[in-house]
Design brief:
mainly alpha
């Protein structure tokens, strides 16, 4: 991999972070930036997968409409019952 060319404003940010002692070196700053960017991309992929899963369920009619506090309480009770059953190994 060749050397990456950065705009002057980004070079200034890196130099400032090194001078402030916030990172040990220019390389360390770039490594952390790339690592965080990769984590952000992974998170975006996870969010998109969860959204697709939810959309699929909605399209298949697997959803509950919560219109009242009673609806909310009933959903909570059903959810807790499922959680307790799973924790007890009765799922």
């Amino acid at each position: 991999m060749g050397d990456a060319q950065l705009p002057d404003d980004l070079k200034a940010v890196i130099h400032r972070r090194v001078a402030e002692g916030r990172v040990a070196s220019e390389a360390a700053c770039l490594e952390e930036a790339v690592r965080r960017y990769a984590e952000d991309l992974d998170t975006e992929d996870e969010i998109a997968a969860i959204a697709r899963w939810g959309i699929t369920d909605i399209e298949a009619g697997r959803y509950v409409t919560i219109a009242t506090p009673e609806d909310n309480q009933a959903l909570h009770e059903r959810t807790m019952a499922r959680v307790i059953a799973r924790m007890a190994g009765n799922d």
